Amino acid sequence: MKALKLLIFSIVLTVISLSCGKETSFEIGGEYVSSGSLKKDDLTNSCLPSKVNGSFFVDSFLNTTNYLDITVDVKQPGSYNISTDTVNGYWFNLTGYFRTAGLNTVKVQGYGKPILPINSTFHINYGNSVCSIDIAAILTVVQQAAYTFDCNNSQVNGSYFAASATNSTNNITVPVNVSSTGAYTISTTVVNGISFSASGSFSATGNQVVTLLATGTPTAAGNYSYTITGLGISGTCSQSITCAAAVGASAYTFNCNSFKVNGSYSTSTNLNAGNTITASVDVTTIGSYTISSNAINGISFTTSGVFTTLGLQTVTLVGSGKPIASGSNNYSISGGGNTCSISILATGPVAAVFTFSGAPSTCTVANVNGTYTAGTALNSSNTVVVQVNVTTVGTYTIQTGVVNGIRFSASGTFTNTGTQNVTLLGSGTPTAAGTNTFQPQTNGCSFDVTTVPATVVTGTFTCKIDGVAMSFSDRAAASLVKPFIGTPELTITGYAGPIGSSVEEFLISIENNDNSSVKPGTYNEKNFIVFPGGYQIVINYRAINPDQSVTIWSTSSNIINTNPPFTIIVTSITATRVKGTFSGSITNAFQGSTKIRNITEGVFDVPIE
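Below the sequence we write its predicted structure tokens.
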């Protein structure tokens, strides 16, 4: 059947070439894939800075308010895909285009719905860079507030420039009249690369003002309209925002004596809006700017925007993260070729002093517990016991880096000095079979963990054809690579029975025209493969007739004249399995496209080979 699909496609390309009389290029405007890395704390691997938006309720599908603000240090502009693993029933994914190098904040949308009311760790992937973020799912939905907008007095704040990321000065203030207290979520759709949102709880009725913060980077200059909506209410507001043309980099100097640390810093508390660094800068050239600190002890500071006037001005760097240990650390603040140093004291329990037995070589004690299987998430049985020698009692946090999709960590308090064992709990999902080496901390000993190959699980591949239930689960499996060529393509194949000359076969195939990997989403026959941003689907059903003759029933993207409607929904793709549904119609393409067969209740849950 794979050969059949390639034959169809070859015929179509020939027809296109003959009819158009010119060469068709599959290059999309000379687009390049971006390169860079996620901003993160090198010790904790936490994404920095980052923000979780929206509330995550058990058994409730995520919506446009459920997204992550993730910061990317872009080295080479171009297309990108940022995604996470699927944890507790939901995941995050975003595809787009970075137009400028430097720090870019993106809004990574959530999908699916939480299964359990637990705290989940997601690993965000961009190229070869990975960072993590924790999200808590809530058991019950809270009472939603009732309110109306005062659209006449809403106001846009801040300056907006194409290709310059928004910051805390960019917001919309909206007066509301609250008639019933409760939770609220107010947001806009993404227009020109940016959106606005706010969530919280009204504790009193009456007139109040809500500030919707901006996220994203404007893509072009012009005047744009934003519709403000509230979750659970019917009224909306419209707000116009003018975005100026892109500006070049500004020139400015620091006054290091003006740098001031605001807020308190505790090892038990995440930084908030009060944890900032203010500084005076002398602007000599109007333009964009980014000022940030290095990441030390689990926290960092950053700000960006556009200087629109010359002279002395005050900037505010917003902090993110949570201090790991108590004590004083010196942070370097850099921007525009300037650097200043400032000290920040974190309070909290005294950090323990200890060494690992066997460091810096193989751990003297390293008891690896549990089974490690590719594609199977770790649980409470996956632990590693290591030995340490404590010289000063106090709190500790021990963790490894992420290797092969998993890591090990532990935290607590040492109350006694001397030699003792610490149990590190594993987290994540192994991506491949093999033996990998882990090292707790940069000064720790090392230990190996062996991951075994994933257990081959029989696939499910069923549907109804003209109302008759059919199963193609025999040898049902998926492939992510096109045979002989090696480019990405999702193909699902199954058979109605064991190998034999009279076994019916069903095939589903999806291929992106830019040779990118197929992601969860909805695909149909309406996208022609040569269209920019498009894809091709192919459906083939090899039916065995009573006289043992064969009829090929199929449909595809617009490469033949008759294309019955067909929809494939890929709900999840992991390292080991792909799941989804399908339905639509197929025609007897090679017999003249004169008849139709209807496919309903199609389901696939198959292993990836």
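The first helix runs from residue 2 to 20.
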